[in-house]
Structures are given as C-alpha cells and as structure tokens.
Amino acid sequence: MAKSDVKVLGAWPSPFVMRPRIALNVKHVDYEFLEETMGSKSQLLLQSNPVHKKIPVLIHADKPICESLVIVQYIDEVWTSGPSILPSDPYDRAVARFWAAYIDDKWFPSMSGIARAQGEEAKQAAIGQVEEGLVLLEEAFGKCSKGKPFFGGDRIGYLDIALGCFLGWLRATEKMNGVKLLDEAKNPGLCGWAERFCSNGAVKDVMPETDKLVEFAKMLFAKFKAPAST
C-alpha cells in the first residue's frame, strides 16, 4: 500500500489518536501522520469529520473513517495479511468490545476527573474510582489473556490498544498528583502488561513521554484558567 494512500489526522498528545497509529503499526502499514494544531481545526479535518469535527480520522484511498475504535476495527478488516487485532472467537470479540466501551465510557472519564476535581475530597473520590476500575481491569486481563502476555494473547490486540493508549496519561496523572494509580501490589498483571505494551515495537515510537505530557497538561490548564477575552 503506497504511503500516500493512508493518512492519520491527529495530535501527538491524544490517546485516541494513538489507537489507529498502533493498529497500523501492528499491521505493518505505512501511513502519513498529519498533525493537527491544538486549538484549531484544519479544513481537511472539518471536511473529513463534519459530524464530530474531531480527531482521529483515518483517510484511506481518499475515504475518511472516524472514531478511534471504529478505525481500529476497519484497519483489522482491511489489512488482513497482518496479525489479527480483534479476537477470532465471537464471544472473545464481544468481551473485548465490552471492556473497550467500559474504558471509554467509565474508566477514562474518572481518570480525567482527577484533574478537574474541585477540592481534595473530590480529587480523592476520583482517584478511588480510577483504582476501582483498575481492579476490574486486572481481573479482565487475567480472563482475556489466558495467562499470555497481552489481553489479545501472544500479541497486541484490540483491548490492548483500547487501554494501552491511556498509559502515557496515566503516568502523567500519577506524576502531577503524587499518587500511584497502577500499583504492583493491587495490579500485578496490569503492571507487567503495561511494561510489555510500552516497549513493543508497534507502540514505543508513538507513546508520548510522561514529562512531555505533564508540560502539555500544565499549558492546557493555564489556558483554561485564563480569563476569556471579550
């Protein structure tokens, strides 16, 4: 596949943008990464995703595909010569989709809620929600991996990508708040998995550095706190 036929519209700090990038790397597909400027939307983005007007967008043969997990499934179905991303068994596939939805709908919002919390009590409550979610995901890892290195078994799969894209922000959240969310004692399986995931060849070049994310987050918070111009 020619490089110009596959493009990803995104921004480096976005965990959701990481998903299609990792999926394409798993499939060994060359692609062009078109960086969007934070705070503005390119004409190409607005044309490609007129409904939500947000990243990521995969453009394949001039056709746009939107929403990160939809894109990952599309990549898995189109480039069949590479390793499978979704489980082949229908039940395992349904379970992976269930947990991916839980991560996006429940777990990640609770993690981003730590930064938005007003006061120490609200912050501790948000931290507690994240930790409870990680206990559930630890159990899910044990069942989905069946004793193998990844949720997807011997190699990175759908649920690995769905959760793993947030590891950079998890570490940044830990550093900014002086907490340990992913704990060896409570989440031994996930801790080992996180190390394997981040060092994998499909991931390591697109996983943002923790310090870089912390600096980006500080800049973002400063912008939100600044008085709006009239």
UniProtKB/TrEMBL annotation:
Its EC number is 2.5.1.18. GO terms for cellular component: cytosol. Its main location: cytoplasm. It catalyses: RX + glutathione = an S-substituted glutathione + a halide anion + H(+). It is found in: Cytoplasm, Cytosol. Gene3D superfamilies: 1.20.1050.10, Glutaredoxin (3.40.30.10). Residues 4-83 form the GST N-terminal domain. Keywords: Cytoplasm, Detoxification, Transferase. InterPro entries: Glutathione-S-Trfase_C-like, Glutathione-S-Trfase_C_sf, Glutathione_S-Trfase, Glutathione_S-Trfase_N, GST_C_Tau, Omega/Tau-like, Thioredoxin-like_sf. One of its GO terms (molecular function) is glutathione transferase activity. Residues 89-221 form the GST C-terminal domain. One of its GO terms (biological process) is glutathione metabolic process. Belongs to the GST superfamily. Tau family. Is involved in the conjugation of reduced glutathione to a wide number of exogenous and endogenous hydrophobic electrophiles. This is Glutathione S-transferase.
